[in-house]
Amino acid sequence: MSRRTSISSPLLPLRKPRRQSASTPSVRSRRLLYCLGGTLLFLLGWFGFNVLEQRVVYVLNQYTPASWHGIWNTADQSRVRWTTKCAPVVPGVHAAKWAGGWDTPVLYKPVGEDVGPALLMLHIFSIPTAASRQRRELIRYHHPLFAIPEEYRHLVDVKFVIGYPREECRGRVNEARCPGVAEEERAIAEEEKHGDLIRLEGLKDGENMDEGKTWEWMRYIGREGGREAQWVFKCDDDTLPILQNLVPFLLTLNPSVPTYLGQGWLDESFYLMLGYMYGMNWGVIKTLATAQVTPEDIQLPLPEDVRTSQLLLSLPPIPHPQHHDPPRQHPHNTQGKHHRPSRNPYVYIPPPSPRTGLVRVDIRGYLANYQGIDAYRGDRAFGWHNLKSDKRYEEAWTVARKALVEKGREVWTPPKSLAFLARE
């Protein structure tokens, strides 16, 4: 047998190597594509879930050209509740005193039991239930006033705002069917112990969120003879206020100018500020509190933040200059000029409304859902929302405190210009 025959025997077959097509990926390449594809799908799913929670339209508006915004904004404006075009005018509010015509409360050093007006009135909305009572105790344990030096705590007024048991529970004694009766007794004891409850009388059904509670709260705040404040903030009990950051920001604003602060919805063409935390200067509060309105004007089936934003569109117009006194000078600046720190401009302050003089300050990012994609760190944020469980509230408080401690700002440091207000 020849050498050639033995080499080509069936035991040692020779095959011509197949040339791999350039268009056919190798096994390794396919695996890499699968991994990348799976990772991309995971990221898209995670991103989509979080973006939906954080308002997808806001994100689109932030990262796309302005010429594209009409594609999705127009579709969303078809919902009457979000558009400025369909907001009804409330005659009683429109006929009230102009929001810029009220005297700005002047801060002064406490004299005995007279603590004078507050710089900030922070009122936390709650309800008369066992779960809400537990949340109030948690908030007191991490009290917002701990962020303020003791000699300046009279400048911040922190209260809880609750109604009464529902009408059908009045006079009942069966706690299993009407737990509101037992909670009313506990609320009375709670007020005697802490003295920090505001009880709103006359609410529809005794207690509600979207049918007049906010309005009755503003009327209570702006009543004659009550304590005044330069800034009044409404806060939900699932929101963590961070006063070490909020108070310095308020000191850069002019409390004599009609102002509304909150986290805007979508973009600047929408009037809504989300309801978990927002604030107004004293003039706006007084105008709304003294307006002559009917229950039908305020007890509407609308979210309270939507209705509040609508009411601000009904504010009275600026009167003719010769018919009113000019606004008082900025109480924190002897020259009466609006001053803002050059190194920390905070947010864009838009021009006032040409009709009402109202300045609508969108502080999104400073106010946001906890761990949201648009939320600022604890050393910058004014408040974090969506803290439904006590565990999550504790976690957010710990995270914020850690960030503030790292910056050496665990407690607010008042400027020297306010030293005359310190309690001795």
Automatic annotation (TrEMBL):
Lineage top rank: taxon: Eukaryota
Comp. bias regions, Basic residues: 329-342
Transmembrane segments: 32-52
Similarity comment: family membership: Belongs to the glycosyltransferase 31 family.
Classification of source organism: Eukaryota, Fungi, Dikarya, Basidiomycota, Agaricomycotina
Record's keyword terms, sorted: Glycosyltransferase, Golgi apparatus, Membrane, Signal-anchor, Transferase, Transmembrane, Transmembrane helix
MF annotations from Gene Ontology: hexosyltransferase activity
UniProt name for this protein: Hexosyltransferase
PANTHER family per UniProt: BETA-1,3-GALACTOSYLTRANSFERASE PVG3 (PTHR11214:SF351), BETA-1,3-N-ACETYLGLUCOSAMINYLTRANSFERASE (PTHR11214)
Membrane topology: Single-pass type II membrane protein
Compartments where located: Golgi apparatus membrane
Record-listed E.C. numbers: 2.4.1.-
Span list, region Disordered: 314-349
Gene Ontology biological process terms from the UniProt entry: 4,6-pyruvylated galactose residue biosynthetic process
One GO location term (cellular component): Golgi membrane
Organism this protein belongs to: Dioszegia hungarica
InterPro entries cross-referenced by the UniProt entry: Glyco_trans_31
